[in-house]
Design brief:
This protein has about 120 residues and is mainly alpha-helical. The chain has helices at about 1-25, 35-55, 60-75, 80-90, 95-115. The longest helix has 22 residues, at about 1-25.
Length: about 120
């Protein structure tokens, strides 16, 4: 019984330390600044919408889609790895990612109102 309590105690400490490590997110190395990230992600969303309208079966056009994404990242002089690290960093905080998406939506709505 004493051994069970000892193992249970250490197991609880271990679990708490693991959860603590999951909760803290280290800042990404070479993170894309938030305002730039919003611009890049907005263009990616626009590209994605365009490609979905062009290709009914997106799986059949993987190479074209990949090349289009690469060209877009080249426009901003951002590597795929840097974008992925930044996306992972911003997405690790749900509130932050929602704010970014709201900024993008507001920007797209403003652009749409100018066209109409």
């Amino acid at each position: 019984m004493k051994a069970f309590l000892v193992f249970g105690f250490f197991g609880l400490i271990f679990l708490c330390s693991c959860v603590g490590n999951l909760m803290k997110t280290e800042s990404a190395v070479d993170l894309i600044p938030r305002d730039s990230f919003v611009s890049v992600l907005k263009d990616i969303y626009i590209l994605e919408g365009f490609l979905q309208n062009q290709f009914i079966q997106m799986n059949d056009h993987h190479a074209t889609i990949q090349k289009s994404g690469d060209v877009l990242l080249e426009k901003y002089a951002i590597s795929h790895d840097r974008f992925k690290r930044s996306l992972d960093f911003y997405a690790s905080n749900q509130e932050t990612m929602q704010e970014i998406n709201n900024q993008i939506l507001d920007s797209l709505n403003m652009e749409l109102s100018k066209v109409q």
